[in-house]
């Protein structure tokens, strides 16, 4: 299955709301556990790239008590949902939300002890945008933990994954999930991206449809 760029859904308020209602609990559990393994007790500043509607950001803030967490998303609709969610969770003093595209992100270089991202990579037309951002904003020896979908071998395999994982979901979400699988990368492609970016990170499979990129800046 060749990679196909994903149609933009997240800038649309209805699409963002549908995404916020989706159940990502299983994959979020895997990511939070991976972040706990990757980070050390002295982590104080954390960057969450592609925070979406904020549910995972809240879980990360709760899993890493005492940290200052900056969460970024390019979609105004997503950031509005995230802001409401963070306020309801009482985490306003721990979480800073920014609506910015990665290429426009105005944050100081080397400012973060850990850089995290889940399910953002496949949304990007150019994967190098993420890795350039990670390299610029992570301090020396910072923890990096990125999780994303793996592109299936065929369209039929992608349809089977959608049916198994989201067969009862909103049709908008089913189509978005299928598009996301088609826009994702293979492990070999991600390893090549990291080599090109000069990032010595490890790539492995996690769960039944995700890859995990971890290591130190």
What's the structural domain tally?
Answer: 1
Rg over CA atoms:
16 Å
Write the CATH fold name. Rossmann fold
* CATH homologous superfamily designation: Vaccinia Virus protein VP39
Strand content: 15-25%
> How are the strands of the biggest sheet laid out side by side?
3-2-1-4-5-7-6
Q: Element order, helices and strands?
A: HHEHEHEEHEHHHEE
Which residues sit in consecutive blocks of at least 5 with pLDDT less than 50?
A: none
Specify the structural class. Answer: alpha/beta
Would you count the extended β strands for me? 7
Assign an overall shape. Answer: globular
Named CATH architecture:
3-Layer(aba) Sandwich
Largest beta-sheet characterization:
7 strands, mixed
Q: Tell me the name of the CATH class.
A: Alpha Beta
Number of helical segments?
8
Features:
217 residues; alpha/beta; Rossmann fold; 8 helices; 7 strands
Provide an overview of this structure.
This protein has 217 residues and is of the alpha/beta class. It has one domain (13-216): 3-Layer(aba) Sandwich (Rossmann fold). Helices cover 42% and strands 22% of the residues. The protein has eight helices and seven strands. Helix 2 (25-38) runs parallel beside helix 3. The mean pLDDT is 92.
């Amino acid at each position: 299955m060749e990679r196909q760029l994903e149609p933009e859904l997240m800038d649309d308020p209805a699409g963002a709301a549908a995404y916020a209602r989706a159940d990502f609990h299983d994959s979020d559990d895997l990511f939070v556990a991976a972040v706990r393994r990757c980070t050390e007790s002295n982590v104080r500043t954390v960057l969450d790239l592609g925070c979406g509607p904020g549910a995972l950001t809240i879980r990360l803030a709760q899993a890493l008590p005492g940290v200052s967490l900056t969460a970024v998303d390019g979609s105004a609709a997503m950031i509005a949902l995230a802001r409401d969610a963070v306020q309801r969770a009482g985490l306003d003093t721990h979480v800073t939300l920014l609506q910015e595209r990665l290429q426009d992100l105005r944050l100081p270089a080397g400012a973060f002890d850990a850089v995290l991202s889940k399910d953002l990579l496949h949304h990007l037309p150019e994967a190098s945008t993420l890795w350039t951002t990670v390299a610029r904003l992570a301090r020396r020896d910072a923890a990096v933990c990125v999780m994303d979908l793996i592109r299936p071998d065929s369209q039929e395999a992608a349809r089977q994954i959608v049916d198994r994982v989201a067969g009862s979901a909103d049709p908008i979400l089913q189509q978005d999930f299928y598009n996301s699988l088609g826009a994702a990368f293979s492990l070999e492609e991600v390893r090549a991206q990291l080599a090109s970016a000069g990032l010595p990170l490890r790539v492995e499979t996690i769960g039944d449809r995700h890859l995990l990129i971890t290591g130190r800046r």
